[in-house]
Amino acid sequence: MAKQKPSRLDQLVYLLMYPLNWLEERSSIPGRSGLVGGVKYFLFRKVPSDISWGHTLGSAALTAFIVQAVTGVILAMYYKPDPNSAYESIRNITDNLWAGWLVRGMHKWGASVFIILLFLHMGRVFLYGAYKYPRELNWIVGVLILVLGMLEGFFGYLLPWDQTAYWATVVGVNLQATGPFVGPFLGDVLRGGAEIGPDTLARFYSLHMLVLPGALIALILLHLWLVVRIGVSSPPWSPDEFGRPQPGPPPAPRKGLVEPAPRNGRLVAPVGRGARRR
Length: 278
Description:
Layout: H1 8-27, H2 35-44, H3 57-76, H4 86-95, H5 100-128, H6 136-156, H7 163-177, H8 183-191, H9 198-230, E1 261-263, E2 266-268
């Protein structure tokens, strides 16, 4: 019997996966799938057949984060976190560097795009009920990613060190300082003193470039692992949605749970949902 000729899609997948297959053969432990095998499983795993374009909002938010990370690294090569040089370094990036205006614009507006996509993604998850069992932990991780993403934007807003950034940060830090109990302490920590100055810029730069990106990357990796581990949820109208009744005869009832079970030769009615104590 003649072999069936592979389709163009199969040939394209083979060409794209050839470097990964080459690495997999030379890096994985025999009998186990290594990191490359995990990447291939993540890219080609099975998902429900009735998912929609709404399920791509999470991937869009991830793409926006990658763009922010790449453009942020490029900007960090030329930015100077010093009150006397910060504004001039921003002007140098925008006016003198090749495509500097484009990189800065992508980073500036990409922050808003990232937050908007996060809100849309979480809204889709909430409306589809994908935050319920067994995905509660993934929902909590997503909320933390949203909070850290908004903090990332707040701490990055001061870095241009212009009038708008300065006074917007003054308002934001003063709002934090009015909080109960730990508010004044947080205000002093963020300012680095009684007023916003060089220490404030240095702290905001370190939080924006080191602390928060590291935490976001860790949470995003955990979020992706949970998605792969638990699976993608179907839309609410799917007949195969978790918890929907499946066709066929119902399972046999278990004694003692939905029917009275004999105890000491007599029947005892169960006390539970729908039953009242007398």
